[in-house]
Structures are given as C-alpha cells and as structure tokens.
Design goal:
alpha+beta, 5-stranded mixed beta sheet, 13 helices, Helix Hairpins, rod-shaped, 5-stranded antiparallel beta sheet, binds adenosine-5'-diphosphate, Beta-Lactamase, 435 residues
Amino acid sequence: MSFSAWLSEFNRILIVFVPCVIFGIVTGFLPLFFIFGLIIYGLWTARQLVELKQWLDGGAEIEQAPEYLGIADQHVSSVVDLQKDNLAKQKDLEDLVSQFNEMIAALPDAVVILAASGEILSANQAASVLLQIDPSTDLNTRITQLIRDPAFTGFFFAGKYDQPLEIRGAAASEPELSIRIFSFGENRLVLIAQDMSQSARIYKMRRSFILNASHELRTPLTVIIGYLESLSEHCGLPSECKTAVQSADVQAQRMKQLVEDLLTLSRIESTAAIEKNIDAISVAAFIAEVVKDSKRSVWFVDHQIHIQIETGAMLKGNAQEIHSVISNLVNNAIKHTKARTNIHVIWRLVEDDAAEFLVEDNGEGIAAEHLARLTERFYRVDAGRSREKGGTGLGLSIVKHIVERHEGELTIHSELGKGAIFSCRFPAKRLEYMG
Ligand code: ADP
C-alpha cells in the first residue's frame, strides 16, 4: 500500500473526526460525538465498499470507475490498470484474428473448418466458388450434403486423410479439385480444396506433346532402321563402313525402344483402369513364352532361370500389358546381372487369396538410396551402364503403372550384393480359376 493512499485515508479520518471533536468539546459530549464520528466513518466506508462491489460486478468499466479518497482508491486504480492492460491485449488478439481471417479469405484455395462429424463451422470466399458452399447460409450443414460426389463421401467417412483426393467436376466447366483434410485442435477438421484445372491442363498438354512427338519419330525411325539393316547385309560394303553402319543400327534400335516405351507410357496413362470383367489371361503361359524369348537376348549369359508356377489362377487384365510387365522384369533380371546369376520367376498365391508374380535374382542388387526412385521415369542406378545395355529407364515406370491399373501393387526389395526381388501382387477379385 502506498504512502499517498494512507495519507488520503488519514485525510478522510480528519474530515469526519475533526468536526465531531470540535462539536464534542463545545457541547461537552465528546464521547457521544466521538461515537457519532465512528458511525459516520463506518457508514462512509461501507457505502464505498458496496459501490466498489457493484462496479466490479458490473464488469469494472474504466469510465465508470468510482472515485474515492483513502486506501480503497488504491484498489480501484489497480483494477483500472489491470483492465487497461487486458483491453490492450484483447485488441492485439482481435487484430491478429482479423488479420488471420483476412488472410484465409484472400486465399485462392477453399478453406472449410469442420466439426469431426462433418458440420461446417466456417468457410472462406473461395469455398463458394470451388465447392458451392455459401459461408453465410451453409453453416452447420454437413459437408457430405453439399459435396455429393460418392468418391468424396467415401474419402470423408474412411477417415484416412494422408493422401489428397482428386475429384472432377461433373460438368466440363467445373474445376478439377485436389482435396486435403487435416485434423487439428479438439475434434476439428480443416478441408482445403485446390483448383487443379491449370496444372491438369499443362499435364495434358505435356502428355499429348510426348505422344505426338513419339508418333512422329516412329515412322522415320522404322525407315532408317530398314535402310541400316539392308546396308549392313550388303556384301560389298568396306569393313570400316560396316562397323559404322552396325553402330548406327544399335543406336537407332535404342531410339526405337525409347519411342515405343514412351508410347506405351502415354497410352497407359491416358486410358481408364482395366475393367474386371474382361477375359482372364494365363500368366503361367506368358511366363513360359517370355523366358523362352529372353534366352535369345544378347545379355543372356548362362543365366539360370527357374520357373515356379504354384497356382492355376488366371489374371483378369490386358494381355499386352501383363506380357509387358513379365517381359520387363525378366529381362531386367538378365540385363542388370552377371553371367550365371540365378533367377526365379514365380506365380503363386499369397495371403488374402491374392496372387503374386515375383522375379528374384541373386545378382549385385541395388543400394537402398535408389529403391524409392526406381519407378520414376528415366531413373537409372547407373545411367551409362543402362544405356550400354539398351535400357531406357522407363521399364519399371511402365511396370508400376500397369500393375496399378490392374488394382495391384509393385514392391521392390533389394540390398547391395544380395540380389533383388520385384513383386507384383494382384487382389483376389482380379483372379479367375478354370474348371
Ligand atoms: P532400364 O531401361 O534401365 O532397365 P528400368 O526402369 O527397367 O530401366 O530400371 C531402372 C533401373 O533399375 C535400371 O537402370 C537398373 O539400374 C535397376 N534395376 C532394374 N532391375 C534390376 C535388377 N534385377 N538388378 C539390379 N538392378 C536393377
């Protein structure tokens, strides 16, 4: 308590008691006037306390702060200081919240805050453009009632939000959206929808450019290869010319393979997933055919290939594509390993009645840092060596796409010096059994 507060309280006592003492002495009833002074002082103090309580109960508004003399004034000014401090902090917080709201409103992506059960708690302006959610009238409506795409409903209720969901608008004019959901706080979700039309357009343009360029290259290449082949067979060609022609032929063949792989990739990327109700293929027969052909490859140097067919399951899929998967993996096992490597080519049933096509070799294997990137286009562990062997770096990318188009999964296990295992698993719904 400050000295000035005590001084002001002392002044109050003087204001009450000095007149009482003077009247007491003048009238000769000093004790009576002293008691009278005490009562007045007590009532004054009590009134101040009641006022103080009413002020505090009424929210302690700074403008309505009571003015006192004495020690109570000290308490009032402490409360007023505290209030001023709180008001300043509240303003800072309000500024921060309004800046945050302005930022969310300015975002080109739709941002919707949801309760865990899906009710909309707030949405920004972009949500009305991209998702047709009106931030003023659609609050408390379930998001699944407004985004009626079955893919979204499935995605929302599955609750697995680690991957974005891509949905296309029903009409051609509606944007293609990438939707992500994150959980935060207590039982809250934030949904972010991004307009992908622009990047989808660029992606389509890039794909059609690759497709057109590959098509345009194919015919002249076939003609060049034809001439090179007839030239190399030409008996009168001097030996130095023959070597040059042969080397040009090898390079032209490589280019042809690259063009073919690019065309395959473009085709499988631009067509829909493979239906389930199509004819079933004999994987066992394809394995036998591919292995037989692969033994004619220039890279086949005494490799030991063991075929293991453990199931009669037939695969419902595209024959040409499944042939390409088997051929790519078997030829890789020959091309990227040394002479006399053991290669196991297996077709068998695994858990959940799924079937697995597996190619395992005991070659030099692949270092761990490359494994995750092997299925990227043009990714090669050793680009120089792969090129020498006629590799394009597109094989595993094609395999992965085809397997996924058949609802399967490609997994690669390898350790340096310990060989490699390439496994393609297809679910039971993709299998058929004869007889
Ligand atoms: P490529 O045309 O070079 O064979 P792929 O996409 O088929 O392209 O394979 C990518 C890379 O993976 C290859 O360049 C090679 O380095 C590695 N690879 C593939 N299969 C094997 C294997 N069985 N053993 C070791 N490395 C392999």
